[in-house]
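A reminder from the course coordinator: this example appears on the midterm review sheet, so study it carefully.

Given structure:
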């Protein structure tokens, strides 16, 4: 089976009308969108998705942010797509994310308790399979 990853256009990206921009970058790279859902995430879903961050100081602000509006969940396929999308997304902090990346080109620091950075991408094939199971139940 081809490698898959989970991409999320987070609520800030949806509010800023960047769904098309994110998907266009994925498609221009040559990866293939094979499923897509508009989701109003619950606290339960987000606690499962962000289980590695439970207990961290930014966890509660992160959950509140991710519940502040709809998220678009995208299943993306292609050889090396997990690493490849992380590279397209750029570093977590949009202030220092490289220009040319989604976060570097489109994100900035808004002075909030949580970093708003437009997209999520799974960090390993194991995470991808786990996360796809959560968002595409
Ligand atoms: P990633 O999204 O680049 O994989 P993670 O470390 O997995 O980054 O963190 C998940 C999300 O939590 C980030 O995308 C960002 O929205 C938020 N976040 C991560 N670290 C911090 C922090 O130190 N302060 C505030 N928010 C953070
Ligand atoms: Mg992560």
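Designed residues:
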């Amino acid at each position: 089976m081809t490698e898959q990853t989970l991409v999320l256009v987070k609520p800030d990206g949806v509010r800023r009308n960047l769904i098309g921009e994110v998907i266009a970058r994925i498609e221009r790279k040559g990866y293939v969108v094979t499923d897509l859902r508009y989701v109003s995430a619950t606290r339960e879903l987000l606690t499962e998705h962000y289980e590695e961050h439970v207990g961290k100081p930014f966890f509660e602000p992160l959950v509140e942010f991710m519940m502040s509006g709809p998220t678009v969940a995208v299943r993306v396929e292609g050889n090396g797509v997990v690493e490849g999308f992380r590279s397209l997304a750029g570093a977590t902090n949009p202030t220092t994310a490289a220009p040319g990346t989604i976060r570097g080109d489109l994100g900035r620091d808004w002075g909030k308790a949580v970093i708003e950075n437009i997209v999520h991408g799974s960090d390993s094939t194991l995470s991808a399979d786990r996360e796809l199971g959560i968002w595409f139940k």
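The beta strands are 4-9, 32-39, 71-77, 119-121. Residues 123 surround magnesium ion (ligand 2) (CB under 6 Å).
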